[in-house]
Design goal:
Number of helices of chain A: 20
Largest interface: A-B, 32 and 37 residues
Helix content of chain A: 25-40%
Radius of gyration of chain B: 23 Å
Structural class of chain A: alpha+beta
Largest sheet of chain B: 3 strands, mixed
Helix content of chain B: 55-70%
CATH class of the largest domain in chain B: Alpha Beta
Strand order of the largest sheet of chain B: 2-1-3
Oligomer: heterodimer
Shape of chain A: globular
CATH topology of the largest domain in chain B: Potassium Channel Kv1.1, Chain A
Number of domains of chain A: 2
Number of helices of chain B: 10
Strand content of chain A: 15-25%
CATH class of the largest domain in chain A: Mainly Beta
Number of domains of chain B: 2
CATH architecture of the largest domain in chain B: 2-Layer Sandwich
Radius of gyration of chain A: 26 Å
Strand order of the largest sheet of chain A: 3-4-15-10-17-8-7
Largest sheet of chain A: 7 strands, mixed
Amino acid sequence: MKGSLKMTNLLSRIRNSSKKTKTNTNQHRNRKRFKLRNQNAISIPKDLPSPHEEEDEEEENAEEGFKLKSSAPLLTHGVQPLGNLYLNPGSINSRDTGLGNLHTLSDELVLEILGFLDSTDLGVLSTVSKSFYVFTNHEPLWRNLVLENLNGGFQFNGSWKSTYVAASYPSFDISSNALKSFKVRDFYSDYLFQSWLCANLEMKPEWLERDNIVRKRGISVEEFVLNFEEPNKPVLLEGCIDNWDALENWDRDYLMQLSGDVKFAVGPVEMKLGDYFRYSDQVREERPLYLFDPKFAEKVPKLGSEYEVPVYFREDLFGVLGSERPDYRWIIIGPAGSGSSFHVDPNSTSAWNAVIKGSKKWILFPPDVIPPGVHPSPDGAEVASPVSIIEWFMNFYGATKNWKKKPVECVCKAGEVIFVPNGWWHLVINLEESIAITQNYVSRRNLLNVLDFLNRPNASTLVSGTRDRVNLYDKFKNAIEASFPGEIDELARKAEKKIQQKKLSFWDSVSDSNAGAFKFSF
Amino acid sequence: MELLCIRQWISGLLPTVKKWLSAWCIKPVGGALVRQEPEYILLALMGSPLKKIMLCSSEKEIFSVEEQVMVQHSVIINNMIEDGSYNHEESKIPLDCVDSKTLKKVIDYCTHHTHHHNDNQEDLEAWDAQFLNVDSNGLYDLLMAANYLEIRNLLDLIYGTIKNMIKGKKIDEIRRIFNIKDHGFTPEEEEQNRKEYPHFY
């Protein structure tokens, strides 16, 4: 908040994609959920008109500033970030006056309280005051109501609230009612503003510029193992799925036709493809629901037959467990903006991800480099990170520009396969509606790692993709011994040798007077 | 120094002792059955004071509380003690967002629930209801303190109370309960509300 800042209302700045503004980002952490919310101090222009007349303004040239999705509803209720309040001396925050005694609570706590109410209570509250009106229209509240009560069998109707009302009160005429939003003046709230902003932001071009992954086409399996799998480095492989029927056939209509009424796993619920696409076409939210089904080939066998594992990844030792193996293959469908925030793949496995339609932006950090803004607990069981992917880009991506160890980045397009080595942090965001297949696997190279992981004392919380977490270690070890007797011992011996060699070379370098480890000066 | 060693030694012994003491009960004459925790028995027998920690409110008032009590209820304090950053001889835990009045209430809650966790459900609920009989601002201060310290059962209790303040009430009642003087709707907007949601009014 410096004196040199031009006074620009964030709303008009975004709408017009106009002049440069400096945003003061004070990060404060919500202790309970480890969400990072920015406090943007944005300044207001004296010369630009007030927020309520923006609809008539023309777009100016985009310099900096964020670009909104073209279909973004113009700030449904006129919520402004808290910073604006401080720059408007004498202004009262209608948030506080409208909440009454509850105004001392933070936005998160108020929303937490509202999370306990049913739709009728929320409806009543929305007419109690303008402030409550804004809070009760917070879409995630209605999303939870839909997912809890309608369980995936819902017809998305433009917004979660609308969807819920339409499903619960079919005779209620939605068109004339709840969607007629009231204009709200002088309502300042960082949480609600940020929520809206993240839901409606487009990916900035500069976030997509860096593409530094190694790309290979037509290499041999040996070359892949030697140069990438063994040293645990990511690579983008081109041309290795050209023979897939899926590449040719899979599009929306084809998939819908094949799957009929079969329900796929979408977050906490299961949905038919048609219903899912209806949702993904209309949705504008921070973290869209992502279709991520580990049993797609069992549900629709034809899907499983139209692709095959690329030749580099055929050695998959979890296969010895047969039907008892943890989840290992997923079909992934999602709209632009959906994806996964930073995580490490479970059970210490490696993965490959093939894009069949659309494109994905990937950011990868090696196992020893924790991405900015990500806070894993010491045992790795919990990872606290910003809620949405867009928020990570807004707040943390810039920091990586100055790092020596830059992340590996790429945009993976249809027909390309990315190899994600085990232990690597990765974040994925769909740049357009995408269909992809991914598999996790264990090869000889990371067999020992996986066994180690499964043998950990807290395996019951960390191991994923199977119901039998505690016994997985024993089962897997025994199955490997049965199919590949002596293999584990052999690998252990080799690993031990390597460690010894490394140790030797350390002592060599210390005793070597030319190493320059000790220098005396007089 | 010696006392500290003894205390640490006792704490180290406790898990094993707890096992063979677990069948012991102490029944005070003429009152409700109260089962004493084995560690209290042992420490009482040994004559050692219970381990205490110091909490410092925003008004710089210091409260001495049994460590067990806070560790059982507050995730934040539990983490602090577990990772060893709290030095029993010197440290005070500063709680700058909690004032003395609220902190005292929080400590009351945790202490009661630790010492009386074997009481029957009705008694506990009655005590909780009495406990929450505070003015409205006190309630929200408690909520913020419980949120800050991450005391799950107190949070759930307060959320439940506030939920009941809202559930099933009419608009005017809610405005009265939460002291909302300026609802912010223009007369036209209120009229629109009345027409569209007559059943709420």
